[in-house]
């Protein structure tokens, strides 16, 4: 497994496993504490694992947490997703930077998203399972959502949106979220 820094988002990493394939399929390690530690991250910091299943065209996000934020490892364990990260840390050298990835069950690559970054994805296959390893217990009072179609972000979502939560549909613009966070 190798860790590669994401140049558009300071502190973000892409962890790419080495699959061992044969006539049965493949086997790969999707998490390795030593590799995570070598990237300067604490592998013991993660306290919660979650999984979402989405159908083609479903869009989830853009989400982040207020307060201390939330760092997470994100992996598409089955199917394919278009994954988006936006750096919303005012003191970051990549503030307002955006990065796009295609994560898939074929590669099992994992994306580390630092606290203070917004995250969202769209399912590209009929079924897409997305796994999250999160570094803080969830507190719904800290949930923040940004409009997925904010023109300032101009995210090139690859498919028409077939479904999303009401919260995501009604999300405020990036400018509104940033103005609220300054208070």
UniProtKB/TrEMBL annotation:
The lineage of its organism: Bacteria, Bacillati, Actinomycetota, Actinomycetes, Kitasatosporales. The keyword DNA-binding does not apply. CDD domains: cupin_RmlC (cd00438). It comes from the Bacteria. One of its GO terms (cellular component) is cytosol. It comes from Streptomyces afghaniensis 772. This is Putative dTDP-4-dehydrorhamnose 3,5-epimerase. PANTHER family: DTDP-6-DEOXY-D-GLUCOSE-3,5 EPIMERASE, THYMIDINE DIPHOSPHO-4-KETO-RHAMNOSE 3,5-EPIMERASE. Pfam families: dTDP_sugar_isom. Belongs to the dTDP-4-dehydrorhamnose 3,5-epimerase family. Residues 166-183 have a biased composition (Basic and acidic residues).
């Amino acid at each position: 497994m190798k860790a590669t820094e994401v140049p558009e988002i300071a502190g973000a990493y892409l962890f790419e496993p080495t699959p061992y394939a044969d006539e049965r399929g493949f086997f790969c390690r999707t998490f390795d504490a030593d590799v995570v530690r070598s990237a300067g991250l604490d592998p013991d910091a993660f306290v919660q694992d979650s999984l979402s299943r989405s159908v083609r065209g479903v869009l989830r996000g853009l989400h982040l947490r207020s307060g201390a934020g939330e760092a997470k490892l994100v992996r598409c364990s089955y199917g394919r997703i278009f994954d988006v990260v936006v750096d919303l840390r005012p003191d970051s050298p990549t503030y307002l930077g955006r990065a796009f990835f295609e994560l898939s069950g074929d590669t099992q690559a994992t994306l580390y998203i630092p606290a203070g970054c917004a995250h969202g994805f769209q399912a590209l296959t009929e079924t897409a399972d997305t796994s999250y390893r999160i570094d803080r217990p969830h507190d719904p009072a800290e949930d923040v959502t940004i409009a997925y179609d904010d023109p300032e972000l101009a995210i090139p979502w690859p498919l028409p949106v077939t479904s999303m939560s009401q919260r995501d549909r009604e999300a405020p613009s990036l400018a509104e979220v940033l103005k609220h966070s300054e208070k």
